[in-house]
């Protein structure tokens, strides 16, 4: 019987992310294994432009899941990959350590129109540093509310540490996560996608009335 210390994760067997699936694969549930991680069940999006996207977050306005979760719950993930869920901050870190990744944030407004913001670099650092967010150059619709600084809103999100209800790492006097859910807050937010009945993206849903959100990652095209 192997001890916990002697067990190791297999080197091969599962793809390290959804970009390693055949381009003809359909969107659905797959098992991936980022380097240093146990196998993880994820939703692979093979329909969005470029195909091979790993879904790391999905939320709907009237979701049944609670986003006001603890640091540990966010670390290891929660929800159902076929519906609303969070992959896990630790797995976001391990996934994005494997190379240079990009991210696409997608929201659907109350008129059922989808909008997106893409960043050519997306990385989540390790837990000991607070799982801070690192983003590259912005392309997409509207203004850049994640790497741009908006002092009259919530400040900035890029380079902010992750905060939860039981681990306050924001730049505000209170704890922003108490009002919404775990996120990379400053003072507090320009954008927040991890909340129940409140999905905010300025210009698309200023009142937090987006109908859904999606966060997709895949290896970037930038060298």
Automatic annotation (TrEMBL):
PANTHER family: FIBRINOGEN ALPHA CHAIN (PTHR47221:SF6). The keyword Transmembrane helix does not apply. This is Fibrinogen C-terminal domain-containing protein. One of its GO terms (cellular component) is extracellular region. Residues 9-221 form the Fibrinogen C-terminal domain. GO terms for biological process: blood coagulation. Its main location: secreted. It is found in: Secreted. Keywords: Coiled coil, Disulfide bond, Glycoprotein, Secreted, Signal. Pfam families: Fibrinogen_C. SUPFAM superfamilies: Fibrinogen C-terminal domain-like (SSF56496). SMART domains: FBG (SM00186). InterPro entries: FIB_ANG-like, Fibrinogen-like_C, Fibrinogen_a/b/g_C_1, Fibrinogen_a/b/g_C_dom. It comes from the Eukaryota. Transmembrane segments: none annotated.
């Amino acid at each position: 019987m192997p001890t916990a210390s002697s067990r190791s994760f297999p080197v091969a067997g599962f793809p390290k992310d959804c970009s390693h699936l055949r381009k003809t694969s359909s969107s659905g549930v797959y098992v991936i294994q980022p380097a240093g991680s146990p196998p993880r069940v994820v939703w692979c999006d093979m329909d969005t432009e470029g195909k091979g996207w790993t879904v790391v977050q999905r939320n709907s306005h009237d979701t049944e899941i609670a986003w006001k979760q603890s640091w540990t719950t966010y670390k290891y993930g929660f929800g159902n990959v076929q519906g609303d869920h969070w992959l896990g901050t630790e797995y976001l870190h391990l996934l994005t350590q494997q190379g240079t990744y990009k991210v696409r944030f997608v929201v659907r407004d109350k008129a059922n129109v989808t909008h997106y913001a893409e960043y050519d670099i997306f990385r989540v650092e390790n837990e000991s540093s607070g799982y801070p967010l690192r983003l590259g150059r912005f392309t997409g619709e509207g203004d850049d509310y994640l790497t741009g600084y908006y002092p009259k809103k919530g400040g900035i999100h890029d380079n902010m540490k992750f905060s939860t209800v039981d681990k306050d790492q924001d730049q505000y006097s209170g704890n922003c996560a108490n009002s919404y859910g775990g996120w990379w807050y400053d003072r507090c937010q320009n954008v927040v996608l991890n909340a129940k009945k409140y999905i905010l993206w300025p210009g698309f849903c200023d009142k937090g009335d987006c109908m859904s959100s999606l966060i997709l990652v895949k290896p970037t095209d930038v060298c």
